[in-house]
Amino acid sequence: MLAKGNILPLALIMTFTILLAGIGIGTVVLEGSQRARDTDDSVSAYYMADSGIERELFEIRKRNQTAAFAAGLASSYPNAGAWASTSALEQADQKVFSLIAAEDFRVIDLFDPDSLGAAPDVDEIDISWSGGGDLEVGYAQWASGATVIWPSEDSYVIQHGFSPSMVIPGLDPTKAYRIRIKAQDVDASNVTVTVRKGGVVKPFPGDLVLSAEGTYGKATQNIVVTLPKSDVLSGLYSFVVFSECQLLKGVGGMPVCP
Description:
The protein is an alpha+beta fold. It has helices spanning 7-61, 67-70, and strands at 74-76, 81-85, 95-100, 105-110, 124-130, 134-143, 157-162, 165-168, 175-183, 188-197, 200-202, 207-216, 219-228. The protein has a domain at 95-204: Immunoglobulin-like (Sandwich). It is built from two helices and 13 strands. The strands form three sheets. Strands 3, 5, 8, 10 and 11 form a five-stranded antiparallel beta sheet that branches. Strands 1-2-12-13 form a four-stranded antiparallel beta sheet. β10 (188-197) and β11 (200-202) form a beta hairpin.
């Protein structure tokens, strides 16, 4: 049984406890709501940056604009989202392919599409990888000039190397190159390619570095991608499947071959 005069302090304590609980619950709810808003802004900012990369790539590959032109692009949207190209990026001096599946390949260009007359100044290719299998490395060369004059079929050079590394020396630094790296019987992982001149590591002239910064609300996201400027639709050394018979089989009876 409560003594007289104890009801008021007890009521105050209970009221204060309920108030603290309410403040705590409200704080948790507000913090969760703010985190959800920040996450939404961050995702939106990422897609803003992605829009910038796509626009840069469109201007360069479809409209034949230069990388310098793409570096000055920017755009904003009514929903407070915006993106802008960022520059002052160094060229990559190493290319790494996390995985090349068996019988698959990757292509590397050693020439600058924006400056075809400039030689890549490379005399050695170093390749290392893991996976235990062998790589087939083919390359073609041609004289640097105003246009790319692809070499004839008998000009291709094919070499094989076994894990963990191989070196292709003796390249002509005055020539342009396209390199094709193919994994033979098993997957090749962590395929790392470095090019040199006189033992000094050189940047990859055929690479295109695109970057864009997207903003939305209080969030900022930056995307940087490295890729060949020219879209390689098919390998230079890929097989061509053809038939001397009619392409439409069975039309008008049995096909007749020459």
